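Throughout our pipeline, every protein is held as a single compact record rather than as scattered files. The record that follows is passed on verbatim for readers who wish to inspect the format.
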Amino acid sequence: MHRSLQLFVGMLIVSTGFGALQSNAADTQNQTNHANVSESRQTPFGLYYTPKEAFAALTQDPSIVLIDVRDPMEVSFIGHPEPMDANVPLRMITRSFVPDSGSYEMEPNKNFVANVDAMISRLGFTKDQPIIVSCRSGPRSAAAARLLHKAGYKMVWNQIEGFEGSTDPATGSRNLNGWRNAGLPWKNKISKNAYWRF
């Protein structure tokens, strides 16, 4: 199914709360107020979307590029937004366990910007192309946006709640917000066009 049709169908499913889309998807009037964005999620662009805002923008303008910057194993096993154009990891999980955090250490993808450059070129776009970056809950994608800003990209929105959303202190589960918790279209299978080319 063509991406714009997939997005249209998904939009119909979750249409409650979106309202009429009257402006261009890349219009800064249709974005979250930066004053409400936590410091860890802020970027030099000052451009932010909630998952529903990101989905609305992607539905209105399917040429916007959606990049998931999580480790490919996260994307594969946990799932990703259905309109994902590419998985380009900012950091990758190692086999070094960190007892204090109860998780595995992550190492930077030293080729992150080069990977994004190659992906944008492959799609026939330039650094002027509107891009949305997403991660698990927002800080990692903010770090990715900062690197893209330094590399000369012009319009990068941080999807501030990520795919899984924030952790609920009462339950320890990531169920407070995020793409998946918003009921937006997602899947586990990565398309042959979106997988990480390292």
